[in-house]
Task: structure prediction
Amino acid sequence: MCLRRQENIRRAPRIKLSTIHGSKGGEADNVMLLTDLTRKADVSYWSQRDEERRVFYVGMTRARNTLNIVRSQTDREFTEAF
Result:
């Protein structure tokens, strides 16, 4: 698509993909937060809820303007975001 739109792929990317842990300390104008949990995170969520809440808090507070939260299509989801 980039080539078809004749975009310069050598410029800085307009979209940055990151994990919540990787975004710690950073900010972005717009953030899309996926609420899917891995098996390991799901197990951790049920045994250490405050830890997982802190992780999602970090993700939610990275947005300067717009925060979009995307629901999971599985049964492993951080439901407290809704």
